[in-house]
Amino acid sequence: MEAIQLVDLTRCYGKRTAIEQLNLSVASGEVFGFVGPNGAGKTTTLRIIAGLLPPTSGEVYVNGISVRQSLSSARRQIGYMPDYFGVYPDLRVWEYLDFFAGCYQIAESERPRMIEDLLDLVELTHRKDDLVDRLSRGMKQRLSLARALIHDPQVLLLDEPASGLDPRARVEIRELLVELARMGKTIFFSTHILADVAEICTRVGILEAGRLVAEGRLEELRLIASSRRRIELTLLDQVERAEALLGALPGITHIERLDGNLTGQRPALSFEFSGDDTGLCGILSQLVQSGLPVLQFREDQHDLEEVFLRATKGIVS
Ligand code: ATP
Q: What is the spatial distance between Cα 38 and Cα 210, in angstroms, rounded to a whole number?
């Protein structure tokens, strides 16, 4: 079942086209990272999915429900967290959630328990009597997430949930998203922080100037953007034999010794490989079966920025 489906979605603001012919499906239970630089059209897309902004053309379906035709039913499926937190000078944390629970017509008798559970989930129980405006930015983001969860929606649309947070608060938000995914929610979130995507997303779409320039699992995008994967191999010894064996295997190029011995570390090699994950497993098996003392075998993961840059330069399409 598709939780979110965008069909030829286009939105213009006057003469400016903010998003153009977006086609995208997100399956139920996915954590989808919607990545793009400033102005790419992420907020516009999220607001259209949430039913807050009409598209110029195209359709959006949430759990099969047309947002255009059945706005209120679609909205019941959606929890939307905007990229700003409004000003609420006189509200305490629990009052803030109580207010929004009222907006969703949740019975007063049910609210205390529900608010308690939500505050527990976002770890704000100890701040429940504080004024909202006194919370730190990370806490406000968590409270905003709790607000998006009030009516127990299946699909969460989160606009830059980690934006402006320090590393610790980013980790907290990330952990919360993982927890929500475990609870069976579908999460669609925008970001320009690539590390967030790498760690928690099942799939990623890269948006550039209103167009989806790449979409898929991160490994797939990496493969497309860089058909050569870089692998590092560390051994206890016998580096020459490893070098010879790798040199004889298909798909391997650019074998280089790393200066392990000079620095007193274990001997290490790096090489490029043009195959898929199964091929990579095969290489590791061959090394081990040949009796080579493999200490570490890992893919260099630092090419994410490169994937992004290449995709947004139109190299990937
Ligand atoms: P950011 O990461 O900076 O929030 P974004 O990817 O969310 O950017 P959008 O806010 O969707 O991008 O903006 C996409 C384009 O549409 C930009 O060129 C922006 O200037 C334009 N735009 C957005 N809202 C409006 C509006 N209300 N009126 C006119 N142009 C708009």
A: 11
